[in-house]
Amino acid sequence: MRFRLLKILAAVALAATAITIGAANYLARNQKPQPLAVALLITGDDGLTNRFRDALEHALRTDPRFEMARAGAAYDLQMRIPTNLQPIAVGDHSGIQVLVTFADHSGKQFGSSDRSCVEEEMASCAEGVLADARQLLAARLTKLGAGRDG
């Protein structure tokens, strides 16, 4: 009787383990990745810089890979516009020179996006900054992963 009870308990434990592993695998395959929380910081205070910040904030809010971190909350990525943006000529158009730096949650800078953009196309310029951020983040993750293997 005791042996039979142990056999039943072992079968139940095995089934529970299989269900748990199956559920974990299902969640891993079907769960959307969590967006990165971004702290967007701005040093400049002029209208041009503020308009670009608005465009970058809009791009962050509409990209499912990112989310704006609440003020004072923890974040995964810091984007900083360190100075007032400079007006420049881009062909026959008014343009801007954009610099956005990227840092991790500890504030350690690991890259930047430096672009010349047509002023009327700030939205596409902001999208380009996000593309640069994604590329740098992917390279950083690859480098961190390679460091674990070696």
Explained architecture:
This protein has 150 residues and is α/β, with parallel strands linked by helices. It folds into two domains: 1-31; 36-149, Rossmann fold (3-Layer(aba) Sandwich), CATH 3.40.50. It is built from three helices and six strands. A hairpin with a 4-residue loop joins strand 5 and strand 6. It is elongated, with a radius of gyration of 24 Å. The termini are far apart.
Characterize this entry briefly.
With 150 residues, the protein is of the alpha/beta class.
Q: Work out the strand percent.
A: 25-35%
Averaged pLDDT, please? 84
CATH superfamily of the largest domain: ABC-type transport auxiliary lipoprotein component
**Count of distinct strands:** 6
Low-confidence stretches: 14-18
CA-to-CA gap between the ends? 53 Å
What is the CATH third-level topology name of the largest domain? Rossmann fold
> What is the count of DSSP helices, taking H or I runs of 4+ residues?
3
What's the structural domain tally? 2
Report the principal-axis shape. Answer: elongated
Rg from C-alpha positions? Answer: 24 Å
Structural class: alpha/beta
CATH architecture grouping of the largest domain: 3-Layer(aba) Sandwich
Overall helicity:
40-55%
Oligomer: single chain
Largest sheet composition? 6 strands, mixed
Question: What is the CATH level 1 assignment of the largest domain?
Answer: Alpha Beta
Order of helices and strands: HEHEEEEEH
